[in-house]
From TrEMBL:
The keyword Transferase applies. One of its GO terms (biological process) is lipopolysaccharide core region biosynthetic process. Pfam families: Glyco_transf_9 (PF01075). The keyword Transmembrane helix does not apply. This is Glycosyltransferase family 9 protein. One of its GO terms (molecular function) is ADP-heptose-lipopolysaccharide heptosyltransferase activity. Keywords: Glycosyltransferase, Transferase. GO terms for cellular component: cytosol. It comes from Leeia aquatica.
């Protein structure tokens, strides 16, 4: 099937922040293929906000598998095509109820295929995540060479971030954001704090005017406090102080972002920030790193993928390559 340019299309993508952001090139490609159509996107209630204000989404909403069980049984909005990322049966059933034609990836439980009109083979494990997401639109004849992810800060959010910077008297200083931790279920992605400390020491030796803002949720606050103890005049703690969107707006105020592989790092890429991102060998940058982003520098764990395990220590990433990448970007942005 090829997508009709007048079609009403539904995309269901209930996932984490990073996977939500990584699907934005697919959403943009779909909307470009619908010059006279309409694109609705439903995502996870806690993560769908990352898609707010994107010009290629006509309607944005939230859904969960439990909520999907109760939706679509009565007359209401209907779609010509529904694309479903993931394999939750309630979401697949909902798509079947509200769309005339459904598309999704091959399911581990092949009984789920009865709710799909078109089953798309899962791309190979070495396929970049952005291109994996593009496989569903491609099944409808939608192609694109634009692989850069997207995020838009609202004007009110930008003003709040500017006021925060002024309130902390950080204006006219080179601001470097640090994302020191991934989420709790994948702590093996974290770069040790002593490495961050050494990096900060080197960067401050080059330019004492530099100031670090430690980003992240409240769980990162103990690490942020430890960094502030080392550099009391050069660290401001922002952990747990902002919701997802205001955190992104603050990131837009940075001269440079340095972080481990986690949701905010994907947001930094989507914002087009100068950035250095560190990747564990189980999640290499060739799969999860930014694409078509000229101001992104990625540092991968040196272990070959075949020898990589969950307990492979991120401390094996030395400070020198991170410092070199950061220094290069700071010089470019002067």
């Amino acid at each position: 099937m090829r997508l009709d340019p007048h079609a009403k299309v539904l995309v269901i993508n209930v996932c984490r922040i990073g996977d939500t952001v990584l699907a934005t090139p697919a959403l943009q490609a779909l909307r470009r293929a619908l010059p006279h159509g309409h694109l609705t996107v439903l995502g996870h209630p806690k993560r769908v906000a990352v898609l707010q204000n994107l010009p290629f989404i006509d309607q944005l909403g939230a859904i969960t598998p439990s909520r999907a069980r109760w939706l679509g049984h009565f007359p209401g909005q209907r779609y010509d095509v529904a694309l479903v990322y993931g394999g939750d049966a309630p979401l697949l059933k909902f798509a079947r109820r509200v769309a005339r034609y459904t598309v999704g990836f091959e399911q581990e439980d092949h009984r789920h295929h009865r709710w799909l009109d078109q089953v798309v083979s899962v791309p190979g494990a070495d396929t970049p995540a952005v291109k994996q997401a593009l496989a569903l639109p491609a099944a409808l004849g939608v192609q694109t060479e634009r692989l850069r992810t997207r995020y838009e800060v609202l004007p009110a959010e930008a003003r709040r971030a500017e006021r925060w910077v002024l309130r902390h008297r950080l204006q006219n200083r080179p601001l470097i954001g640090l994302q020191v931790a991934s989420f709790p279920t994948k702590p093996y992605r974290d770069w040790p704090l002593h490495r961050f400390t050494e990096l900060m020491d080197w960067l401050l030796e080059d330019d004492p005017r530099r100031h670090f803002i430690v980003l992240g949720d409240a769980l990162s606050t103990p690490r942020a406090r430890e960094l502030k103890q080392h550099f009391p005049e050069h660290v401001t703690i922002a952990t747990g102080a902002f919701n997802l969107r205001d955190n992104a707006a603050l990131m837009q105020q940075l001269s440079l972002y340095i972080g481990v592989d986690t949701g905010p790092t994907h947001l930094a890429a989507a914002l087009g920030l100068p950035m250095v991102a560190l990747y564990h060998c189980l999640h290499p940058s060739r799969i999860y790193g930014p694409m078509q982003h000229p101001l992104a520098r990625t540092i991968d764990h040196p272990a070959p993928h075949g020898r990589c395990r969950v307990d492979t220590d991120m401390s094996e990433i030395m400070v020198a390559p991170v410092y070199q990448a950061a220094t290069e970007l700071l010089r470019v942005m002067q």
